[in-house]
Amino acid sequence: MHNLSKSVVSSLIYSMRRRIVVELYSPSLRILWKEWDARVTVVLNLTIQILLSILGNRRKSSRKLAIRVFIWLGYISADSVATFALGILSSNVTDMYDQRNNNAVDTNTELAAFWAPFLLLHLGGPDSITAYALEDNELWLRQGIGLIVQTGMALYVFLMGWTGSRLSVLSLVMFLPGLVKYGERVWILRSASNKIRRTSMARDKFFYRKENFYKENDIKQNSGYFIGVDRLVEIQLPVDLSGLNNNNSITDEDVLLVAYG
Questions:
Q1: PANTHER family under this entry (predicted)?
Q2: How far is the C-alpha of 138 from the C-alpha of 63, rounded, in Å?
Q3: pLDDT, tens digit, for every residue of 202-241?
């Protein structure tokens, strides 16, 4: 009896939640979102990129809280919005491909395929900011995996929307710099990580010492000094250690020779 009443209450709660969702998202609102979802996400992502491009360098010179909050929000949401937009384009272009006539050119499909390379370019981020903090550089491997996944998704949208028109050719032209830009971001994050930076600093320090050594030799040689290469030969001096075993007094010279030996 208790289990039956519990199941009835759960059913009522589920029905109420479903009714609230249906009332909140009416059929007209869902149709409107289905029609404009790709456009809204692409424009939103473009707005975030413009915001980061303008304010990206300001975080180095400005201590205003509002600017730092806007930059932080734009930085953490840029990748998520671009990924979400690629997912919407992937779903929409599949529906368009199934519904369109193969003998006709669908402009919506072409436009969806044209947006995908731009989103890949946006995932590369603006030049004004690559990482918000030093800790973000350690996530370069995660960004590398994201590069593979997002490139595959953008390639899928591009191939599904390919019609051979001029707009499709322009999509191919945009796809290559988008891939390069995203790969450049992963490479920069990897180069700025702690492990790679320490290795690079040690290597640079070695070459810096070597370069200074050769410069110093050139300066001395130009000043008239004789610069040559000599071989250091270690010479074993004959040392009489018998005096140490007895209580006999030894000279300071013998002490130095014994110490050297």
A1: OS01G0798800 PROTEIN-RELATED (PTHR31325)
A2: 25
A3: 665 555 666 666 677 777 777 767 777 666 666 665 656 5
Helix 140-160 with 107-123: angle, nearest 10 deg: 170
Selection from 115, 73, 72, 74 nearest residue 92 by Cα: 115
Token pair in block for residue 8:
């009835």
Is residue 89 within 8 A of residue 115, CB to CB? The reply is yes
- Side chain identity at 112, as an amino acid letter? A
Give the predicted TM-score (pTM) of the model.
0.63
Residue 207: what residue type?
A: F
Q: What gap in Å lies between CA 119 and CA 87, rounded to an integer? A: 11
**Of the candidates 261, 225, 221, 220, which has an alpha carbon nearest to the alpha carbon of residue 243?**
261
DSSP SS3 for 64? coil
Residue type for 103, please? N
> CB under 8 Å to 123, separation ≥6 — which residues?
78, 79, 82, 83, 146, 147, 150, 178, 181, 182, 185
Token pair recorded at residue 57: 């360098």
41 neighbors 81 (Cβ within 8 angstroms): yes
